[in-house]
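[recover] target loaded
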């Protein structure tokens, strides 16, 4: 059994025991979070409607930063150049249960 969950602005495929990275949540390490289900697959049965009661329970393992991304702007012949960096913050969670 696996589920497609919505975590922040992204959707991810998860099964029980998977460790995934989601956008930053305000929960501390060791706490539990609930992720909303978009699609539920159990063998041959695929459920995409009536999932308002379904959820995925996950335990927060900790937070970390993603890789550094360099943003660089340049305009020819004007002397304009600008350099900027960014590191996205993520939370690592372990899926403990899929509640259908």
């Amino acid at each position: 059994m696996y589920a497609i969950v919505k975590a922040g602005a992204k959707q991810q495929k998860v099964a029980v025991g998977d460790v995934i990275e989601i956008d930053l949540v305000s929960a501390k390490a060791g706490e539990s979070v609930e992720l909303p289900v978009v699609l539920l697959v159990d063998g041959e049965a695929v459920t995409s409607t009536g999932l308002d009661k379904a959820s995925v329970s996950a335990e927060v393992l900790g937070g970390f930063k993603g890789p550094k991304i360099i943003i660089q702007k340049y305009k020819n012949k004007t002397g304009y150049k600008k350099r900027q960096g960014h590191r996205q913050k993520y939370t690592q969670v372990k899926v403990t249960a899929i509640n259908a």
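[recover] notes: The first strand starts at residue 2 and ends at 7.
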